[in-house]
Amino acid sequence: MSAINNTAVFDVVIIGGGSGGISVASSLLKRQPDLRIAVVEPADHHFYQPGWTMVGGGIFTPESTRKPMADVMPKRVTWHQTKAERIDPKSEYVLLANGETLSYRRLIVAPGLVIDWTIISGLEETLGVNGVTSNYRYDLAPYTWSLVQSLKQGKALFTQPPMPIKCAGAPQKAMYLACDYWRKQGRLGQIKPAFCNAGEVLFGVKEYVPALQSYIERYGIETAFKHRLTAVDGTAKVALFDVAGESGSQIVERPFDMLHVVPPQKAPAFIAASGLGNAGGWLDLDAHTLQHVRYPNIFGLGDASGTANAKTAAAVRNQSPVVAHNVVASLNDQPLKAAYAGYGSCPLTVQRGKIVLAEFGYNGQLQPTFPKWLLNGTKPTRAAWVLKAKALPWVYWRLMLRGKEWLN
Ligand code: FAD
Predict the structure, then answer these.
(1) Whose CA is nearest to atom 16 of ligand 1?
(2) By alpha-carbon position, which residue is closest to atom 8 of ligand 1?
(3) Helical packing angle, 209-219 and 170-184, nearest 10°
(4) Pick from 157, 156, 134, 162: which is nearest to 226 by CA?
(5) Distance between CA atoms of 316 and 403, rounded to whole angstroms?
(6) C-alpha span between 342 and 135 (Å, rounded)
(7) Do 284 and 242 lie in a common domain?
(8) Ligand 1 atom 28: residue of nearest CA
């Protein structure tokens, strides 16, 4: 790993050093070790975000979900520790925030998505105090666990914004783990949990709904669909929801003692500003080759992509070898043969020790990794818990980020 300060030309420039950027850099080097690769990534640390649900449930420490970026960056890439500001897809260069420009033969766009904390009025100033928390931030997930432990009675609200969001099951996971703790402590009679969901269904793939519904009933959770959080008054402990009804929408106030918020999420603005976005501003990729639909020397993966898969690290685990394979083929003027089938996975932590393991591809088609006799994903199982709590963090840090392409 080295750093440079002038304009440079690379075989491959990768924007983002998160799950997608690091795993695809490693997968490329496994296939062609002499590639000149630049990774543009401003952050000092790399995060294993799937672990934040477990931090909020008191199972993982926050520190176990974070490593210095320098430790995960492949040694043979050039790391530019700054942001990509704009891409010029016609002239084939990336303009960086520090004023450098990087020319590329192939570009891989993997900057993740942007969580829009500011769109909910009053939220930012009350996060981390007044009982308001979110597992979607590294520094706040421990506060979720401290609130769960300290709450003895009252109203606990868990919100879910309109799709798309990363890990669509995560708003519910926080809720089930909290309810499981309160049930074991004998507090569920005094605590009233509610799931305030902007959507109209519990989960987008119907095969998993019966198992989740049984936990909604077990914990006595009130489900409030078509409820979109718009404002929070932390001091007064009141949340405001826009509730869609047949005769238009109305604002409904709900008092709370604990509020777990998942805010709306959007594509990074520079994608659309660089002419690479679809109608929603997400990276406009071919669903299978992961090549840009208008610029053949641009590819992408991860949460910034406009493909119709679940935005998860599990999706990235499957996308990364496809992108690496096709980028190498494209550099060598070969046809793109690798195809992504839309796999994504969401391990729903319905109680401590059991998980409903949703695994599905495009159009909600089930894509289980394991045979049913070993792990039936539509039922809560101990095997899926062991996978999430023990195996997957190891697979992530030791295999996926190092270009060892298991479990895909
Ligand atoms: P990220 O990993 O977010 O990385 C993006 C990187 O790009 C960051 O390092 C960022 O600093 C960098 N960047 C941003 N802008 C720029 C720029 N302009 N220039 C250069 N770099 C930039 N997935 C699962 O598979 N299973 C789960 O159980 C699961 N649970 C989750 C629970 C929570 C609470 C959260 C928040 C996520 C969860 N996920 C889960 C989702 C998973 O973490 C993401 O889908 C995955 O990290 C996406 O990878 P990515 O590379 O696209 O984005």
Answers:
(1) 111
(2) 18
(3) 40
(4) 162
(5) 12
(6) 25
(7) no
(8) 50
**In a domain? residue 369:** no
Q: Compute, in angstroms, the gap from residue 246 CA to the centroid of ligand 1.
A: 37
pLDDT digits (tens, 9 = 90+) for 339-396: 999 999 999 999 999 999 999 999 999 999 999 999 999 999 999 999 999 999 999 9
**Edge-to-edge strands, sheet with 248-255:** 227-233, 238-245, 248-255
User: Which residues lie closer than 8 Å to 288 by C-beta, 6 or more apart?
Assistant: 339, 340, 341
Q: What is the pLDDT of residues 53-79, one digit of tens each?
A: 999 999 999 999 999 999 999 999 999
Among the candidates 342, 361, 385, a domain finishes at 342
Query: What is the spatial distance between Cα 296 and Cα 189, in angstroms, rounded to a whole number?
Result: 58
For 289-332, the pLDDT digits (tens) are 999 999 999 999 999 999 999 999 999 999 999 999 999 999 99
Range of the domain at 248: 116-265
Residues 157 and 231 in one domain: yes
User: Is residue 96's pLDDT more than 50?
Assistant: yes
CATH classification at residue 41: 3.50.50.60
Cβ(197)–Cβ(225) under 8 Å? yes
**Residue 39 phi, psi dihedral angles, 5° rounding:** -115, 125
Q: Give the residue from 233, 265, 297 where a domain finishes.
A: 265
Q: Which residues are catalytic?
A: 167, 346
CA 154 to centroid of ligand 1, rounded, Å = 33
303 Cα to the center of ligand 1, angstroms: 7
Residues contacting ligand 1 via CB (< 6 Å): 15-21, 40-43, 49-50, 52-53, 83-84, 110-112, 135-136, 166-167, 170, 268, 270, 302-304, 311-314, 316, 345, 347
Q: Does residue 144 sit within a domain?
A: yes
pLDDT of residue 407: 79
Ligand 1, from 13, 15, 19, 318: best to mutate by most atoms within 8 Å of Cβ?
19
Ligand 1 centre and the CA of 253: distance in Å?
32
Give the Cα separation of 111 and 221 in Å (integer).
Answer: 36
Same structural domain, 177 and 62: no
